[in-house]
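User: Hi! I'm working on a homework problem where we have to compare a predicted structure to a textbook description. Could you give me the structure for the chain below?
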Amino acid sequence: MRKQSGTAKRQRTVIALPADEHSGSTSGLMVGEQWQLSEGGYYNPSRTQMQIFEQFNLAADLVLKLRRRARLIVANVGDAVDNNHHETTQLVTPRIDEQERMHTDVMDHFLKRVKFSKRRGDLLYYVEGTPAHVQKGAQSEERIARDLGAVPKRKGTAEHEFKDGRYTWDHLKLNINGVLLDISHHPGVTPGTRAWTRGNALRSLLKSMYIESIDYKHPIPRYWIRAHRHKYTAEIHRGVQGTIEGFILPAFQSRTEYVNKIASHELATIGMLIIVIEPDGQTTWHCPHIVFEEDEYERI
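Assistant: Happy to help. Predicted structure tokens:
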């Protein structure tokens, strides 16, 4: 983690946290228009993918509104592409390089829509996802992060800047205006399978983190952010020493055949967490998301 100087200039900062786009999946995120395949054919996004892209754009528009007179940080929290995993047939293409291009295309669209500009101090980070999706060592996300100019975890030497080093983060810890954010892909907890138990595990984890941070004299993160489960969950623990808010992020992928097999009762949660940190450390957050059932009841 880069240490933030005590004299660093504080500025209003907006953090956008997309996750689990699974580009390349027929249920994942892509730009809402015809895509020409490497072999010369075409793929047209499904109705569900068009809905996902529409929600992606709505989140981008909110980011643009919030980021006026503010620095923007975009942290992509893993599983950017789907990969050819678990013998799935739900792929636009099994070519991993083309899936990477599909993701780069949609993220480039997002960055332009929110007026991302390095000259204004904006920053892009990529957090490693699941090896089954992004290849061992986050090879896909590493290539994507380099292509999009993300902040590297270990910058290469001057002579080999684009060959060595590491551009993805397994665990991203940020200190923004004195506010600590702890970001990684895998949550280590599973949301409850019933609506009334969904936040129990996350709430208990936050309390445990709070106690351990005090016991071992570690800083208490203000925001603990994870992804992977595709089920938006938000909980909070308040104590005398501080407050932790924890999130399991929504995704930009609808239910797959596998999810329909093991949890057909659960609805897909599509959206993005956005956090605003003021110069004085005051914070607010927004999570525009939708919960939709892909199949309508057949009227007969």
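For your comparison, note the following. The mean pLDDT is 88. The radius of gyration is 19 Å. Good luck with the assignment!
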